[in-house]
Each structure stands twice: as C-alpha cells, then as structure tokens.
Inverse folding.
C-alpha cells in the first residue's frame, strides 16, 4: 500500500496510519484506509473489507461514499488490488455477492467473483458523490475479502480514461481479462441444469487501449498456454483440445447474438484478409489486427446462459483473456 507524504498532524486529522518518514524525515508516510459505512474525499484512499486481510463473513451491505477532493477532479480510478467475492450463480448473475458503483456519469455493470488486478474508471458527475456498494451474503464461508485503491484524477491528467471507456490500458503489450475470468469452473448449475458460467451476465462496456507514439495498429490474440482463454459461448465441457482455443472453436459474425466481443474493422493476422465482421464468440479466437482508431473493444453479454428455442445452453464458460500488441507504423 502506498501512502502520501504529510505532516503528522495532517495524517492524524485524516484518521490515517503513519507507516514511515519522508521528505528527509520532516514528513510522515500516511496511509488512509476506510471500511464499511465511511465517507472519503481524500485522494489515494484504500477501501478494505472489515478485518482485512482476514476473511470477511458477510452481513449488512457495505458502502463507501467518495466525494471528489476538489473541483478540478473529473474521474475516479478504482484498482481492485485484491478482490475475492462469491462466484455468480450458474447463469452469471451476481446473487450471493455483488459490487455496484453508482452516482457517477459512467454506467458500471454489477460484478462479483475473482477480480484481483482489474481496474475501472468512473467519471464524476460534477459534485455528486460516487457510492461503492458491496453486498456480501452472511453465512457464505470462503476467503471473501477486498482492497481497492481509489485515485482521483484531474481533468487534465494524462492518465484519465477517454469517454466511454470503463477500462483503459496503456503500453505496447498487455493482457485484457473479462471480469471474473479464471481457468477453474463455476461449480453452480445454470437454469438448464448444466455446469454454470464464470462469465458475468448483463455486460455492455468498452475497453480502450492508448495508442502509443509511432504505433498505428493493434493485434489481439488468445492468452498463450490457456485453452480456456476465449470461451465466451458454447459447451466447454463437451469440447476437447482440438476445439478449445483453436480456429475450429472460433465463431464470428451473425452467429454471435448473445455473448460476444466487438473489435472494429479487423483483419485476420495470418492472411491479411478482412475478417468481414466485428463480432467474435465461441470457444476459440483467431488472431486479428485493426487500425481503427481509437483502439477499443466492446464486451456484450446477455442475461441468459440457458437453452433457448433455437440455441443449446452455454456450458462452463470462463470469459476471455486476450493479449494485445501494438504494431508500429
């Protein structure tokens, strides 16, 4: 955890914790941490579960109200440094535990499960507070815990996310995971009484990547050595290694109507031929490249993982883990 260099009195007035000295020992490294039922307008506040890092047993709804520290702040960056909540039910709905974020100008989907390492950006709505609410069902026994770092970003900050970007990545290479992505399956059954999904239902958000200087295109591919790294629709349990994570399992275009990833104007890396569609789903992903700017992809999931009149149920989907690499001009 990173503190802020303050005078001892300032830190005490903020109910912070002094962890060391700074500024040639004239200042104190002050960590400001809040838990359930608190309010903060302090930049670099940590929001932790009661008793963190110990497991939290759940109970009453836990909220933190975040006010911006001054009128030059436009955005709140929320880093899930440690976020372990209950998995969604078998249909991807967050019933046992849930994180909801309201009050900002950004629509934030309800999420749950394992989201350590994820970061989201929420625009302030002028002086309106942003409320982070965590619902944790009492009596559910597992190592539930959370630690979020809340960074307030000035309107002229180079690190501010563009409009419409719930997530914002920087750097020439990186890995983008869907919320609650993981290789282990969800043990809950879906409404169709088959193995449930880790993929969160009812998502519709944008993920942006900053175009670095001298780079004009971007490539996306499945994360290496992970056959589950693009299992967005279909029957994972019914597929073997000749299908999972391969071009055989890849689905795109008009066949992707329920859960899918949108990549604007892509071409197939292996052939250089236009993909002819911007929608991708199924149990595999063929590497693609796009020069469409800004660099952005969209994630859409519906509310139903079960069978319909025209489609079989999705079984044991994990979501996606996509590696990106920017391409020089």
């Amino acid at each position: 955890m990173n503190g802020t260099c303050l005078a001892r009195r300032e830190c005490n007035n903020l109910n912070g914790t002094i962890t060391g000295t700074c500024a040639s020992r004239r200042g104190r490294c002050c960590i400001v941490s809040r838990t359930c039922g608190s309010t903060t307008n302090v930049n670099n506040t940590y929001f932790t579960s009661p008793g963190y890092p110990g497991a939290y047993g759940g109970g009453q709804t836990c909220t933190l109200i975040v006010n911006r520290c001054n009128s030059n702040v436009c955005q709140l960056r929320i880093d899930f440094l440690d976020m372990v909540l209950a998995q969604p039910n078998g249909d991807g709905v967050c019933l046992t535990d849930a994180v909801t974020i309201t009050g900002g100008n950004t629509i934030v989907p309800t999420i749950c499960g394992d989201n350590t390492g994820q970061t989201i950006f929420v625009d302030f709505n002028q002086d309106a507070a942003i409320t982070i609410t965590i619902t944790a069902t009492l009596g559910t026994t597992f190592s539930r815990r959370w630690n979020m770092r809340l960074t307030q970003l000035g309107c002229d900050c180079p690190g501010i996310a563009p409009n419409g970007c719930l997530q914002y990545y920087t750097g020439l290479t990186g890995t983008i995971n869907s919320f609650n992505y993981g290789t282990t399956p969800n043990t809950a059954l879906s409404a169709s009484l088959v193995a449930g999904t880790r993929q969160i239902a009812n998502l519709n958000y944008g993920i942006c990547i900053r175009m670095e200087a001298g780079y004009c295109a971007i490539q996306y591919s499945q994360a290496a050595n992970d056959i589950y790294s693009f299992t967005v629709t279909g029957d994972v349990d019914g597929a073997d290694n000749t299908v999972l994570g391969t071009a055989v399992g890849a689905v795109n275009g008009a066949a992707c109507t329920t859960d899918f990833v949108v990549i604007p104007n892509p071409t197939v890396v292996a052939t250089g031929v236009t993909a002819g569609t911007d929608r991708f789903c199924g149990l595999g992903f063929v590497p693609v490249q796009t020069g469409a700017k800004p660099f952005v992809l969209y994630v859409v999931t519906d509310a139903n993982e079960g069978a319909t009149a025209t489609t079989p149920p999705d079984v044991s989907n994990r979501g996606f883990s996509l590696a990106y690499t920017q391409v020089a001009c």
